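Help! Submission page says 'invalid entity' but I think these are all valid:
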Amino acid sequence: MSTRTTSKQREVLGVSALRPDGLAKTQGTFSFSSDYTADNMLWGATLRSPHPYARIISIDISEAIKIDGVETVLLASDVPGKLTYGLIASDQPVFASEFVRYMGEPIAAVAADHPETCRRALDAIVVHYEVLKPLTSIEDALNPNTPSIHPDGNVFRHQHILHGDANATGDIVVEGEYEIGMQDQAFLGLEAALAYPDSDGSGIELVVATQWLHEDQKQIADCLAMPKEKVRLQLGGVGGAFGAREDISLQVHTCLLALRTGRPVKMQYTREESFFGHVHRHPGVISLKHHVTNEGRIVKIEGTMKLDGGAYASTSSAVLINGVTHIQGPYKCPNAVFDGYAVRTNNPPCGAMRGFGVVQACFAHEGQMDKIAKAVGKSPVEVRLLNAMEKGDTLITGQPVESVAPVARCIRETDALPLPEPLSLSAGTMELPGGSGRTSELHNIKRGIGWGVSIKNLMYSEGFDDSAEARCTLGDGVATLKFATAEVGQGFVVLAQQIARTVLGVDVVVLDRIDTNIGSAGSTSASRQTWMSGGAVDGACRLVRERLFEHVAHMHGLDPLQLIIEDTDIVDTMGPLRISVSEASKGVKITQTFLHQHRKTEELDENGQGNCHVAFAFVAHRAVVDVDVELGLVKVVQIATAQDVGRSLNPLALLGQIEGGIAQGLGLAVMEEIIMQNGIVKNPSFTDYLLPTALDAPDVLFIPIEEPDPQAPLGAKGVGEPPCISVTPAIVAAIRDATGIDLKRTPVRPQDICL
Amino acid sequence: MSTSSEIYSLRVNGTDQHVKDAWIGESLLYVLRERLGFMGSKGACEQGECGSCTVLINNDAVCSCLVMAASAIDTDIITVEGLAPSESPNDIQQAFVAEGAVQCGFCTPGLIVAVHHLLETNSSPSEIEVKEALSGNICRCTGYGRIFSAVQLVISQREKSIS
Amino acid sequence: MTIFSPRSLTEALQVLNEHPAARLLAGGTDTMVEINFRHFEPSDIISLRHVQELQVFETLSTGYRLGAAIPYKQFENGSFSHVSGALSEASRTVGSPQIRATGTIGGNLGTCSPAGDTLPVLSALDAQIELSSINGIRMLSIHDFMLGVKRNARVSNEIITAIHIPKINGFQGYAKVGVRNAMVISIASACLIHNMDKSHIALALGAVGPTIIRCRTAEKWLTQNADLSTSTALTTEVIEEFGRLAASEALPITDHRSTAEYRKHAVGVLAQRLLKRAMK
């Protein structure tokens, strides 16, 4: 599927414009946050707890501080401001002082002249612990007799949903239990930051890879006891995020070390530390009971969702709400009784990851749809089409789906994509399950096909006051854009340029530094930046265009309302005037700032009712897998998908999101899991936390469903999350289809298939 | 740091570079980045599992995180910076941009080196040979599809320019 | 803390004799992980990169002498891929192409992990390990060389200089189970060598015990129950029993990579599949 743009085409919206940072990234000259360095710089490092739960009896830093090259060692008592931080609830200590509540929790930070000196200093810090029995199961956390492991209690949130008739029944009841393992975002560019203290110590500048500069700024300032404006953040190049950079990791520690030493301090996690340094995707268990008619129509759903949020709150409460409010899937469902719980344990904190609660819900509801299909003698496609949600339908929260909802179309268009050829007799070993291990031969292999369809909310929910700001300056035919939107790889930088070119008729669009010298853009998450920051850039450019039209109209004695942009010209629709934008903007400088806000949302009531979401996107996935049933090894052959994108603003970037999301969903289906044992992380490395390689990548067939969303500023829906949501259940369904085994859990392990 | 005892020199991109006061345990990746300023090689796993730090040593593509820097004396080390002058990126680099193979870009320099090495040793690899040759370079953003397209573009462009 | 870069074997052996605590560094793909993860603090290092003798490959009358510092890629598809089909297949499964360009067969022996990919092959081939010191050369059977998890019989003043393997008339194959299609540490592996001249089939298992396991019981049973002088297909019963016996000889553990139960099952399946590939 080639989507390349020709060089003649103007790189406006709808075109596969190329990233402005692309070439530098191929040459190694693009600066990631880990690539920054400063004169007189120190290195920072973090001491972390080896125990999932323990009382700290004493901390002795006296030997560490004596080591040649060590400049400082900081503890909780050195934090000048707030001792805790957190995105929703401020319950996570900057440094643990009384208890450690998860393996890897920070206790101290050191600054020294070399990373190895730092490591030796960490070794020299003596911490005495009273090791406590960790709370590691969801059921124990929900048990009111279990002692609290945190002053805020062991349950982050319970949400009940009651919708329609609680006593409604169908002809058939279909029940299922589902379990999801803990996935890691595993971005490639590790956590890194460089802090420059102001010479008088009154402020600090931090270069950091994050998803949300202003939220970091707020939390850091609180901990440093500084006014917000004294904490200036600049986005260091971000090597992927996927949710893992929404929470604070090393930001406060780096600033504290720099302020204490009066020198620039760089912190950079190792891969092992990164596994402890950021939140993960919530593992959980979901039980679902569907009441359906003999025909297979959903009458009512009942059940529970229980998510393990780990030791601190992070975004657990929001993840839970996303999970429970999407549990019906993209299907009509008139009645529901459902309960969701997010609990605190001594496992690693869990929070945002691409799909945010909906991945878990979707794995369960899609497993149910296949069971329903089987129970009523329909195909997976038929039963999904029968129940497919449409515009105007109501969710189990009572919220109507007011905008574009092409669920049936996603399913039909996916179904129409060609299936792969059967395995050929000449297939090489690398094309079979087991790959380079040469375990399988053709006659060992069974092929299966599976389906997954999903609904995902876009942007923040539950009344969150969400906005994004952008500024546009036009002069001499050049547009300059300023925003604080974190570019994490998704390509907002190219989209912003496309918007300015389209709206203003310029070709040269300069991007100003991404930092806190402008209002917040909100987080690069929740599939929200195309809509939110895209809307802000679009709005700022439109305001500039109005001023430009006024300027031209004034010069030529025209009504500005009769002017339009045509390619790179300003054209008078009522007369002969045609003047290029670069000429018209010669010697002028027009600057406009725009704040984009989406429509208000509501909180849920005690029955889980309320218009809590802004908008929705839909997608269908069909997976084809080959399974070596005897060894339990899987090769994902092909993923076909049609996704509701509203409008394709950049087909090449869109395809990149689709294929990339699919690979992450594949990982959760067959290989990616953080293995926990009594609160201990068993595989914090890329040797044992397995990510899909080039040889694991399936063929992807993709059809964008373009039905512009009138509520979206550019008609485009966010596209980042849907690709990774229903692909996981589709793959697992395909494995069930190939093997006949009722797999309840993802990721599917070899022993789940063959033993 | 205080315990260092080494002075040695490395030949990087054709130029001798002196390394002073280094700790013996430093990897080539660390020395390239932190002592010699070649920031193009990226570190993401420190155990040879991701390929972000791929460089050429004596024309072999290797993970620089797994090379003890002081042991790489008297070898020819080529980093991503040494593949093409910054003002004229090579066809692989251009193809990666044109085909959308770059998202966050952290894995990209290592992939550029790996693709360069592949096409130097096999100018017309099959699809599966490309996948196997790149199986040591993890990309978390793209799902690899656009990377394969970029490699195919380079192969076809080079074939065209020969014929 | 010094790194030595000897230019000859003689020089390397002398340096080692003077610094018996020094770590020998071949490709570095294991040692550098240990250093990067702080599992090993380097003191003196002897880099073998520039010792040409360790790169030498020789064809002998009965087999081959493989220089210990030859990297995997040379056995995978490089100059020496013809010496052993199983060694070639095993080499192809080691880590990534980058690792295979650096890591060496001698390094695999030196680390002596039960999951070492070439070790089941060397075991099934009854390889002889050549250990050199300033006092001379001693030859040790692979079975006496491997002592346990990451433990071997090399003494501190010795360097693994070469591996001697026989020429085999008959099938040889290697299979390895990993959850990913490439670049994965073995969960279970097996190597089967069919020596038609000796009417014998050897089977060695990896990652299912403290060190590589040679399946002597299964091998003996097969010799008694099948004509191994040819490659004629065997009955399903014979193949299944061979797999069952092989699995019963495995001593796997449960860890974060897999379960003991699965590993036992997997090596049984691999043994059967390899036997079918050999006898058809």
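Support: the input was valid. A stray whitespace character was the problem, and the output above is from the cleaned input. The radius of gyration of chain A is 27 Å.
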